[in-house]
Amino acid sequence: MSTETPTQGKSLTEIIDVRKEKIKKIRELGFEPYEYNFERSHLTKDILDSYDEIAEKNVVRIAGRLMAIRNMGRANFIDIQDDEGKIQVYIQENKVGKLGFKLFKLLDIGDILGFSGTVTKTRTGQVTIFATEIKMLSKNIRPIPIVKEKDGDVFDAFSDKEQRYRQRYLDMIVNPSVKDVFKKRSKIIQWTRDYLNNSGYLEVETPILQPIYGGANARPFKTFYNALNSNFYLRIALELYLKRLIVGGIDKVYEISKTFRNEGVDRSHNPEFTLLEFYETYVDYNYMMDFVENYFRFLCEKLGKTDFMYNNHNIDFSQPFQRRSMFNLLEEYVGQDLSNSTEEELKKVCKEKGISLKDSDNYGNYLAYLFDEFVEPNLIQPTFVMDFPEAISPFAKPKRGGAKGIVERFELFIAGQEFVNSFSELNDPIDQRVRLENQERLQESGDEEAHQMDEDFVRAVETGMPPTGGVGVGIDRVVMLLTGQNSIRDVLFFPQMRS
To answer: Does the 12-157 domain belong in CATH 2.60.40.2700?
Structure first.
């Protein structure tokens, strides 16, 4: 815990003015308050892990942020935090010299410092660096929240969610465990690349700014391209460009990229999110179900466990994923068979169930509302929901041997949320044109999330697209699940916030 109290009762302006005065005094002592470099020999974790090898033998050089000061006259203890952890440093005037000790007296929590010294343990057994040199590397002038800690227990934690999300740099300084989530996120994305690369996939990049948006039911962000004198859109999916590459002869292709949808913000949605899409020729959605299930097992193997607590549910990846028909699930949870219902009949069911409707809603919207309201919350353990209506799946092939209007599509649900979407991709250009024309009519009737007609994409399919299985994975949600975070904002460094 810190015993520093000089800032108590002062306004922020007064604190900043005091620290600016300290900068002048530091320079008068002959020190540079904003150094150019500092050569480190160890990180804190290195010292703690290899104490027996370096204790009282080697001079170590560490750098980090000052997190606590315990003033005891001419001998003082401070805590220094770097990317790997925290360590105690002992400051004694006869060791760092008079100038060094005068510099010490000008320190504030939040300063970034460098030290040289030897490593030993205090009488209480705590690994400590006995400093022989102290250097100011960056003087803090805007105070950071002070978190008090004693015997491993944290008091006055920096827990204001709004401030943590808006000032993520403070969040990571004061709550170092936050960094662990983002380090794990980085590993999950790298392991995803490993899984696909090892399966023969090629990673590519496709346009973020697009003259025609498509590949998902969503409203886009719109901008204006001055050089081309045209409206452009931030992409809502990766699908249509990746399929062009399939047509061009790349048999296995994927992209992990930022995608943008002009929609609401909640604990599982952010308008800017990370999407993985991959496509493989000569396979269908049955193959992709196995491939996706193995992908999650691969991530579990890398993490060393198969059980994860998420949204108060214990998710078990050791068991085979369930596979259920969408209409069977609707019948189970809505209480009636909807597979042959007309648009008007579905609208009536929605009204009877108390679902709010818009004038522009249609058959696909009604089914989606019923599924979201009554089925989705019950899909806790990993479940593939299969065989969707064509009306809400304009890029999926008709189901073989199935009822008219049903397509080969699956979505993977875990803990009541969708994580994966997949099709046996439609490669019939005549059918594809009809489907997009139907989407265009829906858009004209007021459906803001319907697809636009993309003539160049249809042209590509007319050139000849092989049978293909395609998959989209919400990477942010995968990270949430595997790190136990219940809000998407906790796995995004800088989530979107209201002004």
So the answer is: no
